[in-house]
Amino acid sequence: MKLDENEVLVMKSDVIGNFLLHREANIRIAALSLLITAFSTVKPFTVGATNVILRGLPSMHAESDAYTRGEILSLTRKFFVRLRGGIVKDEDVALKTDETANKPAQGQARNETETTEFLRAYLKLLGNDLRLAASYPRHITALKALKLLLDSGLDPRIEAKLQKSEMENIWKVHVEVFDSQLLRLLIDLLLDPFEEVRQTALSILSLCPPEILLNGLHGKTDQQSAVGMRLTDAIIRAESLASNTSRADHADTVARLYRIIFCAALPANSGQPVSDWWTTKASVIDTILKKLEERLLDSKTVFYSAMREAPLHGYTSGLRYVVLVRT
């Protein structure tokens, strides 16, 4: 069938979206690329396109092949760049005339409500992939996608280091990504058997706003704190695991947890009373030193046994991490 010069061939998003569930990985990647790629990075998505992408991503996040996951994350980065342009309703696109069909859609009315709802649905998808019962591919893909989203400047509480090319296309909406539930999911992954998962979770936790971290430290009894896990409980679990396994990577998790708590603590000259060891930066360092000295100065314990039965490497590395933090 031949098309006239002025006739436009429109490929519907829901038709392309069906190929996101194809059994061949190359076809799934090609379909996702068709849905995301556009001649302009500021061209808004349609509601239909974002819906089919959201429907196809859960299965794509479960890809066992590392190369395929890399391709998906590369397209996810492009997806976030274009998503900053917003989302328009399908009926708004249908009203465009043939003369403007090939022009950038800058004149279309972007729907901030649709964009916010999609972002919340996407964050819920990532949260499901971060649960302990999920597989390694889901864990690492969701973590890296979450890191890309945070680096894009979506959460106003996190300082994003945008490139010059990204400054002209910033988010029109803002969503607070971090909450107590996400904090709990990330803390649970700190003891994941895969090192890449642990390190990525720690790098995301380092971006967590101090107020969220402090809520994860206070022993509150309300429903919100019950959702999250206290960072102090996470350190106890990590220290126990490091003592039982004597593995350097588990001890490194202990060290990085102390660094996160140190960053969230108040300065030593804040004038606040030291009610708990994690309240001020000085009390955090003092706690690490006391634990280290107790193990090294215990005359009843052989030094070699002390090295195996306590995460001494975690304490010494923790001191190194906190010293490197600019206060």
Ordered list of secondary-structure elements with their pairings:
Blueprint (H helix, E strand, L loop, with lengths): L12 H5 L7 H12 L8 E2 H14 L5 H18 L3 E2 L1 H5 L17 H18 L6 H16 L12 H4 L12 H9 L6 H11 L4 H6 L7 H5 L3 H15 L2 H17 L16 H16 L6 H7 L2 H13 L3
Parallel strand pairs: 1-2
Verbal overview:
- Helices cover 58% and strands 1% of the residues.
- The chain has helices at 13-17, 25-36, 47-60, 66-83, 90-94, 112-129, 136-151, 164-167, 180-188, 195-205, 210-215, 223-227, 231-245, 248-264, 281-296, 303-309, 312-324; strands at 45-46, 87-88.
- The chain has a two-stranded parallel ribbon with strand order 1-2.
- The protein has 17 helices and 2 strands.
- By secondary structure, it is mostly helical.
- α3 packs parallel to α6 and α14 (248-264) packs antiparallel against α15 (281-296).
- Residues 101-108 and 219-228 have low confidence and may be disordered.
